[in-house]
Design brief:
By secondary structure, this protein is mainly alpha-helical. It has three domains: 58 residues, no CATH class; 40 residues, no CATH class; 72 residues, no CATH class. 67% of the residues lie in helices and 0% in strands. The chain is globular, with a radius of gyration of 18 Å.
């Protein structure tokens, strides 16, 4: 979402947008450049519509598709926050303080909406199916280890495919229980 918001905002820079986006590093920079290329491929009306969608998503208190995030990630995010933050995430922000609390709670979470069909299909699978899939992928490499070793090996096996999509590894990790998701993140990045 951040990459899309940056790409949408970069539109006001005109010809300088490409130079500015090229200076942004890491996954966010890659996501911004990918989003900018997507905007460039659209006609003017569709580009304006897409920028408006991205700007609205950037202003939302919680990331799109929050229901797809495993509850353990949300619980971890809310653990140190006041009860009002839990209400703001669960029921929606009613005022600026609720909006701030919801954004604070969801700061580590990414949008669970994937534009790539392969990633979207992966994220649509139930959690138990994803875990079983990672375990199967990791069987050859982690045969002598425990389930955690097999998940780690499975994540390493799919890492090259996930790296083609800036948010895919984090999205997959957030679909899993947090302990497994962290293993996936460390194994794919």
């Amino acid at each position: 979402m951040l990459g899309e918001a940056i790409a949408a905002a970069a539109n006001v820079l005109g010809e300088r947008a490409e130079r500015v986006l090229d200076k942004i590093g890491g996954a966010i920079g890659e996501a911004a450049r990918t989003a900018r290329a997507e905007l460039d491929a659209l006609d003017d009306a569709a580009s304006r519509r897409r920028r408006a969608e991205w700007a609205a998503a950037a202003r939302a208190p919680v990331p799109a598709g929050l229901r797809a995030v495993h509850a353990s990630w949300i619980e971890h995010a809310l653990a140190e926050l006041p009860p009002r933050a839990r209400r703001a995430v669960a029921e929606g922000a009613r005022d600026p303080v609720d909006t701030w609390l919801a954004r604070w709670a969801c700061a580590e979470l990414v949008t669970m909406i994937a534009r790539d069909r392969e990633v979207a299909e992966l994220l649509a699978r139930p959690t138990d199916v994803l875990v079983a899939w990672l375990l199967r992928l990791g069987e050859p490499a982690g045969a002598r280890g425990d389930d955690l070793d097999r998940v780690r090996a499975g994540a390493r096996a799919i890492a090259p495919r996930l790296r083609r999509h800036p948010l895919a590894a984090r999205q997959l990790a957030q679909r899993l229980p947090r302990a497994l998701g962290i293993v996936v993140l460390k194994s794919t990045t």
